[in-house]
Amino acid sequence: MSWLVTGGAGYIGSHIVRAFREADIEPVVIDDLSSGFADFVPRDVPFVQGSILDTALVRRALTEYSCEGVVHLAGFKYAGVSVSRPLHTYTQNVTGTVSVLGAMREAGVHRYVFSSSASVYGTPETDPVTEDTPLHAESPYGETKLIGEWLNRDMAAGDEAWQSVNLRYFNVVGSGSDDLYDASPHNLFPIVFDMLLAGRTPRINGDDYPTPDGTCVRDYIHVADLARSHVAAAEAMMAGRRLEPAYNLGSGTGSSVREIMEAIARVTGIDFTPEIAPRRPGDPARIVARGELAARDIDWTMRNSLDDMVASAWSARKAHRG
After folding, report:
1. Can you give the residue ranges of the NAD-dependent epimerase/dehydratase domain (predicted)?
2. Beta bridge mates, 27
3. Labelling 56: which of 11, 210, 272, 311 has CA 20 to 30 A away?
4. Would you write out the chain's pLDDT as a tens digit for each of its 322 residues?
């Protein structure tokens, strides 16, 4: 019994790989290492190095390892950068997803967990967002994730055996192990950690938003909690249980950027007062998602406090300081 994890050498994917192993489901990884690390893949986990754009390669991985399903995470995930690199984003995220789905059809694999994003909501009309909140993606990245959900829907419409789910989430942080860390140059935690380690002062982009402390509020969720719900979704499918088309993996409350900064100072012991920079264009004041449906069906819960998230991320970052 095995599942293919695309992007399984990445920060999130590697945690999902380990969560599958803990559930006694054998993972198989395919990753082109454009942002992942071969060292993140355990030595005894089958690792296919290559691009999901290579449909034949994906199909061979599915058949060679007798995969029962796919968790699809591989893609270009940087919403801000996607604005300046739309064609690259669409190629990786839309053409790549079509390739994965085509390989699954050719291999006769019908179970599919799609890593979507809360960016499909754009600037939401409701607070907090639910799975029924209208979808208005506002970046090429968000648009590609929305198209990915459409593709999933259309696969289900044309294949009675198709079992699938879209998992939507915001800011994934923390670490489940010191040897797995977030190396993204675009994510808040590694940006702040690197600035502190370099003796520089982190910045907050805007402190005049209509929020309690004036800074933007977002969901921050622990990567290990996220990984557990991907496995729970796969287990539900294998057990024949019906899932909703999409689930939000959200906190329901959120944390502000200033609260994040205060937690980082508290946990690291590095006292700093963040500089205040101008707002970034397009940053909504608050986007927070409810997670009750996911809690009901796929074992979603916030097992880690904000300090837990910071502490685990900081420990992993220090272990790989360079």
Report:
1. 3-250
2. 3
3. 11
4. 899 999 999 999 999 999 999 999 999 999 999 999 999 999 999 999 999 999 999 999 999 999 999 999 999 988 878 888 999 999 999 999 999 999 999 999 999 999 999 999 988 888 899 999 999 998 999 999 999 999 999 999 989 999 999 999 989 999 999 999 999 988 999 999 999 999 999 999 999 999 999 999 999 999 999 999 999 999 999 999 999 999 999 999 999 999 999 999 999 999 999 999 999 877 888 999 999 999 999 999 999 999 999 999 999 999 986 5
Q: Which domain holds residue 33?
A: 2-172+220-248
The upper half-sphere exposure of residue 39, i.e. CA atoms within 13 Å in the direction of its Cβ, equals: 6
Distance between CA atoms of residues 258 and 253, nearest Å? 15
Q: Which of 262, 244, 257, 239 is nearest to 300 (CA)?
A: 244
Q: At 132, is the secondary structure helix, strand, or coil?
A: coil
CATH of the domain at 184: 3.90.25.10
Q: How many domains does the chain have?
A: 2
Q: Is 141 a catalytic residue?
A: yes
Write down the catalytic residue from 141, 181, 209, 220.
141
